[in-house]
């Protein structure tokens, strides 16, 4: 079926090829997250993705992306021995993880760059987004993303974190900066917000446009992946809480020009990182003053009433496809209870990185307003 | 044959299993460059590597590593549907790139981390080395590795570089540091010296032991991969030379506390990065004062006589398996001509990263001696 689809689309004729009544536009271009010089995978302006895999003697090749209920996208063998196919429908805007099943084994697409998610280095693909400009690489002053190795006696090793220092950090050695501690989700690691999220580029662009004050962002591994996806009730916050509060924050405050007090320290996280944020902020009201849960739960007034005077912002976001009334209602209840609470819903996306890139874009201007 | 080898090795009996007369020690452990929680690939104390790939319906699975002339290591299907095999002989100490051929297609090993080489993100494996301590992650003060995006009008984009700032950089804001510009080889990119080379850990450890003065290392993409491996005669140095001299050096000197003069600026590179180093240093004698070619060619006295007073060090290294007399003889001739020339030969390695890790270890203490 898909082979037929490809032939019809290539011939340029207008016809109804799917129950969806959509003509697939043949404006496919290599995904911006391909390896250098790799033509495939490709994406078009409507959000379709097209794959090409070389495995001449394979019996079956399937891509994990595509209409969920249909088990991904089955590729068909072309005359030259390559396997090709196009998703049956368009995908949500933004970044997606995927992998390839070849004869029953899971492998990555050699055409794509790799991104850590679902506890493995997956392939990644970027679907064009109408608002993609806000995370584009532009000719503006850029911050630095610093890989640091901080001592962690509690885990008996040096642990890695990435620290974004904003443009101007080096030119203004007398300035000190507030800090956002920003966590990834289950299955991910400390590279997620930079590689998948483009947090540094989002910040660079907003700072250049004067949309946010500059601040430091710290991104470390939230120790999320020891539990399996369905095993959240077994998750214990104490090990990561110890690393964060006792080891990482002191390290950052000693090596970077931070404003090292509660009023100038924020914590946020996506998905399971939001769950961690909620637990840690509630357990440490003298450490953080700005709280952000991105597709990561909500606070109720009862959770936070005891510390109202210390909490400057509660930010709750979700994609429009993941029951957004949860965050809207929670923010309304918090506002009613006297908190500076904001909800944000990303239109047309679900539990995925475009929701979280946009959430950071909405969150940043709200942080650290005196 | 290899299946038999595995059975015999596992049974622990002493016997001659190969023409090599070597008993394979069953002390295999997961490679230190595996993805989190992945058991395979594994390596033993003798340098053998063992692989396990899940691809139940595949017809053939082959690993690109193993005795060169034998075309890698063919895996055999075990009862549980996994494919397994062990290299026919031991491998050189240190880091190796590899990939997996499944039914005629090239893919990565899902158990291994990825490293950029041969113009693709390859799988990587680490063979234990008798001297591996010098690049180990230790409980010493660590430098930061900063990802920077510097403006490059000549290539109409912002380009990436990684800048290693040594431990103490933040604690001593009045100190300024010399700089080593360190290039990768053909097929690699700006991540090579950090990810494959562990340059930051080598420096952290030597600084902790007082074996080298601290300095900054800058690692950017040398624009090597537009030419194919055999197409060196088509390579033009001018684009990269322009990026390095006109764009990157000024950026580094403006954002970091460098000692921004010729006497405190070094350039080095491995393989094709050495070729670039030779060309650029000879063409810009007022920019660099310390030159290092790592498995990357040599200088003759005639190349450098005109600028003798400006050149403080010429360092030439090679692996013992890659005609090391070249660097020994060249250094001797340079010394005879009055230069501070040093050669270093890495024992038991060839054109591979262990040679270059060791070369950096030998080079660093020689740099920037007043």
TrEMBL record, chains A, B:
Q: Which sequence ranges are marked TM in the entry? A: none
Origin, by domain of life?
A: Bacteria
Q: Which Pfam families match?
A: Esterase (PF00756)
Q: Secretion signal: which residues? A: 1-19
Q: SUPFAM superfamilies recorded for this chain?
A: alpha/beta-Hydrolases
This protein's UniProt keywords: Signal
Write down the PANTHER family for this protein, in alphabetical order. Answer: ENTEROCHELIN ESTERASE-RELATED
The name this protein goes by in its record: Esterase
